[in-house]
Design brief:
The complex is a heterodimer of chains A (286) and B (329).
Chain A: H1 4-32, H2 39-57, H3 61-82, H4 92-114, E1 130-133, E2 136-139, H5 140-162, H6 164-174, H7 176-181, H8 186-212, H9 218-233, H10 238-258, H11 263-277
Antiparallel strand pairs in A: 1-2
Helix pairs in contact in A: 1-5, 1-6, 1-8, 1-9, 1-10, 2-3, 2-4, 2-8, 2-9, 3-8, 5-6, 6-8, 9-10, 10-11
Chain B: H1 9-17, H2 21-29, H3 32-36, H4 41-64, H5 72-87, H6 93-115, H7 120-140, H8 142-145, H9 170-191, H10 194-204, H11 208-211, H12 216-242, H13 252-265, H14 270-290, H15 295-309, H16 313-327
Classes of the chains: A mainly alpha (286), B mainly alpha (329).
Amino acid sequence: MPPVFGVFFDGIAYGMLLFLLSVGLSVTLGMMNFVNLAHCSFAMLGGYVTVTLMNAAGWPFLATLPVAFVAGAAASVLLERILFRRFYQASDLEQCLLTIGIVFVSIAGAAYIYGTDQQPLQLPSYLRGSLTFMGLNFAVYRLFLIAIALLITIVLVTGLEATRFGAQVRAAVNNQRMARGLGINVEALFATTFALGSGLAGLGGALAVAMVGLDPSFAFVYLIYVLIVVSVGGLGSIAGSFAAAMLLGVSDIAGKYYVPAIGSVLIYLVMIVLLMWRPAGLFGRR
Amino acid sequence: MATEAIAGPQDYLRDQIRWRWGEILFWFATLLPFVLAPSYLVLASQIAITALFALSLDLILGFCGIVSLGHAAYFGLGSYTAGLLSKWGWGEPLSGLLIAALAAGLFGYLTSFIVARFRHLALIMITLGLGLLLQEAANSASWLTGGSDGLQGIHTWPLLARFKFDLYGYTAYSYALAVLFVVFLGARRLIHSPFGLALRGIRENGQRMPAIGAPTHSHIRTIYTIAAAVAGLAGALLAQTTETVSLEALGFQRSADVLVMLILGGTGRLYGGLIGAAVYMIARDQFSGLNPQYWYFWIGLLLIAVVTLLPNGILGGLSLLTRRRKAAP
């Protein structure tokens, strides 16, 4: 039986990854009720940007991460300006159809450019291997992942709590009409938040390559996990997404270690039970 | 709808149930593949089966507002029931169909107690979770279902003990089309009944319906069970006509595909699922013939184009256009 601590550690690292991938969707869904199923396509874009820059252009891994962020954000701004903004008033189902169409296009595009194989990624030597601390083994890359995700969480939470922009975002999530009435430009606010969230997805996608691999089905496979995190956490809640991502990450890894027979379904069971207990999510208000 | 003066609820329902010329033409057009494209009958039978599946989703999504991302669970359950029956030595198609529908309906009834309690995102995710759970269960019960290899050894007896299932799909298409038509008649009757009206009330405002005395939860349970049974029928048809069942019958991909088809055609219109299934599957067939690896790209573009140009799906867009034309001169 593997040591409890190792399982817990892996689960936390996996949960951090899920958090990075899903937090943007949670906030934009909470604010505008815009169902963006293409969220993981931005993550996939980030992953491919990192892989391409490292393998074709020889960039160092760390330098590619900001580029992955910018790529995700830029792609989302482009799509938001051209397509999405026309659909804010449309029904959920139409938004689903539009964004799933974008997912299909992105999957086919990735398969056309990169093929359907898993993309190779060679981590730099200082991120490989593991550290031993008090008799426990820590994989360096997972430590790195946790550190980055924690850093981003702190930045997000302080940004949301302490800045003027954050206050406006909170107001718009809480009550969009009231926020409009107070003179907040919700469209502009949303566009910025959307870009930030997609950028985080791009960063998450770049970080995910070394942990879960990357192929064109990424945009579809991780969409399910991201939706689970968002719905369990509650719309528009960063703390909720964080808690849900941790819970699901740990239960997924623990399930696969301890009860391999049903390990892959544990995450769905946890989701169903949590949603039946709290339909609006752990930290949801509606 | 409310443009003509309507005397009372009975007249309204009677007006709704009147057959229109377009509908009659549509059903005659479904016979065209026999004459015009005999080499495409296998595809036509697949379309009829998928259309039946989309119709079952339309019953809950289009008329009752229940968005499901796990509807393939009932489809797959019907598929496996029909497939297993035939594997165990009872390959009679019609009774197999009924038993499969019963099994799927029973599971639908059991799950409807969960489904009726939730709305919005929680509902979508719970249906998704239930679908994925059932798929995993089928995957791990490989002694029963064949696991990822699929269910082998199905043999369907001739239909009505006379018509063999041929390689060209004559029997398969006739069979699927007949079942689709019969179920469609039932669904049409159901939707234009007072019960159907109550369902649309639940779709429009789930809080106000109990206030006027409508038992919302039991209505939802009823229609969900019916939709599950119809999905089971569609699954059984697929198992019987292709004589194989794979895990994909239960998969998320199938649930998502049928949802896309239905929205593409137009939700809340009986023909939406049928048109959507036909357009989607013909487009997929043509695109994958054109470009086997990247047909997803063109399907994606098609979806984006439809949403951008025709709001409320193909049928919604068409009815908007005809209404505009009527209003223009």
